[in-house]
Amino acid sequence: MPEVLVPASRLVRWVDNFDSRHGGATLAVIDGALRGDAADGSWFVARLPFGEAYDAAADPGAMAAAAVPPEEWGVLLVRKGGFAVARLVRDQVAESKVGQRHVQGRTKAGGQSQQRFARRRDNQARQAYEAAADHAARILSGIAGPLVTGGDRSAVAEVLADPRLSGLDVDGRWLPVTDPRRAVLDQAIGDALAIGVEVENA
């Protein structure tokens, strides 16, 4: 089921809107999440970011207050066209790098020219991943907290295969982003900090 990412500052309003749209909702804390069940059969399950379990009051304000970022954590976004990496202290960027690399698109040519093109494209992609891994190793070295990843799954896997990154604690949340730019990185950081809400509207 798709997840809606709700900033902690907007969770109370989101739950109020759900409540008013569906004729009232009963809230409960179940399995480390806040669940709301409405009279019309609609429901939602809200979970804290970074895989943290929620065990306080069945109240959206209390849950919003519990959505505290780790002391130190990271973000790594990779696609064939570029990468973005950031080390954060709480919700502040301590260090970051955004880079673009040209990787040719696919060609319709056939035969040997297509094979040469594919080899060149693979080489360009490999060089882009190596650059991303170099910067990730430098910026993320020694972080104790989780690493949130996104972009292209195979590209991220290529970068994380670098032995220098083997000790990182990769978070379960995946961010499907476009080619990383500074604005994309900033949005990804906000998404990583948001409360994840599964919702079913009857």
From TrEMBL:
Residues covered by the Actinobacteria/chloroflexi VLRF1 release factor domain: 72-197
Record region (Disordered): 99-122
Xref: InterPro entries: eFR1_2_sf, VLRF1
Pfam families reported in the protein's UniProt record: acVLRF1
Name of the protein in question: Actinobacteria/chloroflexi VLRF1 release factor domain-containing protein
Species this chain originates from: Nocardioides thalensis
